[in-house]
Design a protein that fits this description.
heterodimer; A: mainly alpha; 3-stranded antiparallel β-sheet; two-stranded antiparallel sheet; 8 helices; 7 strands; about 5% strand; globular; B: alpha/beta
Chain lengths: ~290, ~200
């Protein structure tokens, strides 16, 4: 195709043609200059020490979790419910296939490159290679990605333009009323899951239950990282914390928790308290949230 | 680009690895009986906290990355300045460690990192340093919520903000060697820090 025709499709008059041609060339030059400037800015940006912020190849559906109170699980000296602001949350946990896109774009998070400060040796242990999910029992592309550290989950969230949920956000979302569990209470359902060993084959996302906010598998598939998982005080030294596990274990028995029926909540908080940021565990994945 | 960044991280580590070797003859001359400063192996270096990319601000409002503490052993703890009882106590424990070391204390970084990203801005940290009579060996750090959570996770320090903006938290004193590797931790308040001081002195 003639380049002149492309540049000024509308003008039959020769004079206007030339003007348009000049304007077109100028515009192209301006665009080229801006592009170069943009590329220079991007390449010089110090934020490159962090994962590349970019638009992920996979669009993930997010649903609204409306604002509301969350009653902290442990009783506090100041015992007020926490007001959780409305936020959007990934409808499902991040999958193997989605995580693959992240490691493609961020080589420092590939299995063979990962920094041992930020992920232990079990990082993506079930994957076949750096860029190969493989075909094992935990490797379905739509199964939640597991064996990822907290640092890795945070890096993924940042790359996706999102963040990890806080404990109050996750708990509020996780307490959403089940839509398809029949007459079973949520607590009974969760305890049933907790009582089972890890499955031989990790099911895909959307294989358990849906809750009132439109969130799938908040319980029953994998445990999930939260931003402040280390907020639960399980200090081993009773003189250590201003508030600590004494509230759970000593003197008051389990009366220190808000709802002593919620044995499932108790287990969840203990689980979080036992984690370290670089741990990679075969039943622990994550999903992301975003502010409104 | 990533490779360049990695090189940038790696370079100071190499330089740091060379440094103590150059300094050793001097140190030996002064204290003949003193054991050689233990050197980290590659595996240990890979877990140096100095790799944390986040930038903090010190009590003078100047940008600080953890790698700035390279070359000296570092005693680090996490606090918040509106803490009525526990944090001043922990701060006093660390100040006492410094005092017990006498002149040697000047060869150590003492670092306090605040949980309170909202209220503990550099000016407030400076005021706290004055109130607690902390000298110039002390660096007090303010950081973003993400940065403070990351260092909290790395130091195994648990903390949680309550509805009034105060923090429930664990009290831990951690010793980093001159390469940023965690070498010792002591949990609790009003502890006997004789051993902590000994651990620090291994790297002088």
């Amino acid at each position: 195709m003639n380049i002149r025709k492309m540049l000024q499709p509308q003008g039959p008059i020769r004079f206007r043609k030339r003007l348009n041609l000049h304007a077109g060339i100028l515009r192209m030059m301006a665009v080229a200059t801006l592009t170069v400037l943009f590329l220079i800015t991007v390449s010089l940006s110090p934020s490159l020490a962090h994962p590349n912020p970019s638009i992920p190849a996979i669009e993930k559906k997010m649903v609204l979790v409306p604002a509301g109170p969350y009653q902290p699980f442990l009783k506090r000296e100041i015992n007020k419910p926490i007001q959780v602001k409305a936020f959007r949350m990934d409808q499902t946990a991040v999958t193997n296939a989605e995580y693959l896109e992240f490691v493609k774009a961020n080589p420092e998070w590939r299995k063979s490159n990962v920094n041992p400060l930020f992920a232990d040796k079990n990082y993506l242990a079930h994957w076949k290679g750096d860029l190969e999910i493989g075909t094992g029992r935990y490797n379905h592309p739509n199964a939640p990605v597991v064996n990822v550290s907290w640092f890795a989950a945070r890096a993924y969230a940042k790359w996706a333009g999102k963040r990890l949920p806080t404990v109050p956000e996750w708990e509020r979302a996780g307490n959403g009323r089940p839509e398809n569990l029949g007459n079973k209470t949520l607590i009974a359902y969760i305890l049933e899951w907790y009582s089972k060993p890890n499955p031989a084959r990790l099911p895909t996302v959307k294989s358990t239950y849906l809750n009132q906010y439109g969130l799938w598998d908040m319980h029953g598939l994998v445990w999930e990282w939260t931003f402040d998982f280390n907020s639960y005080l399980n200090s081993s030294d009773s003189r250590g914390g201003t508030q600590d596990e004494n509230q759970l274990f000593c003197a008051a028995g389990s009366l220190g928790v808000q709802n002593k029926e919620d044995y499932a909540g108790y287990l969840r908080f203990s689980y979080r308290g036992s984690l370290k940021g670089k741990y990679c565990i075969p039943n622990l994945g994550f999903r992301c949230v975003k502010d409104l | 680009m990533k490779n360049y960044i990695l090189c940038l991280f790696a370079l100071p580590l190499f330089l740091a690895a060379c440094q103590p070797a150059n300094q050793q003859p001097q140190a030996r001359a002064v204290t003949e009986t003193k054991a050689a400063v233990p050197q980290p192996n590659e595996e240990e270096l890979a877990e140096s906290l100095f790799q944390l990319p986040d930038t903090f601000q010190n009590q003078d409002g100047k940008p600080v990355v953890l790698a700035d503490f390279k070359g000296k052993p570092t005693v680090v703890s996490m606090i918040f300045t509106h803490c009525a009882f526990v944090c001043p106590r922990l701060t006093a424990d660390i100040r006492q460690m410094e005092q017990s070391m006498g002149e040697e204390g000047k060869k150590v970084n003492f670092v306090l990192i605040s949980f309170d990203t909202d209220r503990d801005l550099p000016a407030r940290l400076k005021q706290y340093a004055r109130e607690q009579q902390l000298d110039q060996n002390f660096t007090l750090l303010h950081g973003s919520e993400g940065a403070v959570r990351s260092i909290g996770v790395l130091l195994d320090t648990q903390f949680e903000k309550d509805e009034d903006g105060n923090f429930a938290h664990s009290n831990i004193v951690t010793v980093l060697d001159p390469h940023g590797i965690i070498r010792y931790r002591k949990e609790g308040l009003g502890q006997d820090h004789t051993q902590t001081v000994k651990e620090v002195e291994k790297y002088l």
